[in-house]
Amino acid sequence: MVIIVTGASGFLGRLILPRLLDRGHHIVTAGRSPVSHGIPYIPMDFMQPALVMEAADQIRSVRADCIIHLAWIARPPQFWTSLENLDCLAASLELLKSLAASAVHKFIGVGSCAEYGDGDTSAISEAYSMRRPTSTYGHAKNALFEIAMSAKNELAPMSFSWARLFYVYGEGEPAQKLITSMITSFREGCVPDLREPDRRIDLIYADDVAEALVQIAESDVAGAINVGTGVGISIREVAVMIAALVAPHLIPSVVSLPKRIGRPDVVANASLLKNTIGFTPTMTLEEGVRRIIQTTEVKRTK
Asked: 2.60.40.10, 3.40.50.720, 3.30.720.120, 3.40.50.300: which CATH number matches 2-169+203-227?
């Protein structure tokens, strides 16, 4: 297939490209700058919707089979509330509109568990769980999904898939993300501030997410697909795991933190990903954490 990838230089984009190339797909990237001299490139700034409109002819001329749309504001913690989410939404809608009646057969958008809001008391299902976003980011992602799904007849024959990512972690993630920030705190001899220590979340390794997105691109599945492990772990348990690897003497301090009643859990029902796409994550949380510890230790000692 010929596949356009937006946001190809980002955290997930850099993991997706080699997988697509290894499978023999032809790649075109779209963004502010090229990611490789050997990969065709369409200049486009997703913070400026008007520029997406101007690039529409170039996008259509590629005659791509599929587009994987990763580009979106992702700087933590600003992305939760930034008005740039509205720019990303407007640019994404312009991109979607420009591809209608084109050669593209499949549009893959990347959503977030933030669309579900504060979580649920049971595993979160694409079909049955309510979407009640509480952040600008969650609202913007959910709006793109809702509009695309309501316009699916007008977008036909292009299908629309929506990969709803849960808590993604991995090497190279921003320093403010949960795993890396905990590693930093423990290395400095401090117990991290755990505001909701007993809330269970679904952590999925970035390489597994990249593989899932590639398999979604190669499938015929449309609509929303949760991309998570289906396994929840409390933030306290994550902290104990990291402390055991970095600062074992601080484990009692983490264990003794008072229980706090917080928001419901955010754990995916990942049965659609497993049974329909045929994908199951392979990286264990402990091994993923070890890899981040090793990577950040190398950077720290340079």
From this structure: 3.40.50.720
Q: Which helix (H) or strand (E) holds 273?
A: none
pLDDT at residue 78 in the model? 93
Nearest to 228 by CA among 251, 198, 206, 254: 206
pLDDT band at 103 (very low <50, low <70, confident <90, very high): confident
The H or E element containing residue 224 is: strand 223-227
Q: Chain centroid to CA 42: how far?
A: 23
Q: Fill in the DSSP letter of residue 219.
A: S
Cα–Cα distances in Å, from 67 out to 135, 163, 237? 26, 13, 38
Using H for helix, E for strand and C for coil, what is the string for 100-123? CCCCCCEEEEEEEHHHHCCCECCC
pLDDT average, residue stretch 107-129: 91
Provide the residue ranges of all domains of the chain, joining segments of one domain with +.
2-169+203-227, 178-200+232-267+283-301
Query: How distant is the alpha carbon of residue 88 from its chain centre?
Result: 15
Cα–Cα distance, 24 to 252 (Å, whole number): 51
Which amino acid would we find at residue 109?
A: G
Joined tokens for residue 138: 């969650």
What mean pLDDT comes out for the span 240-249? 95
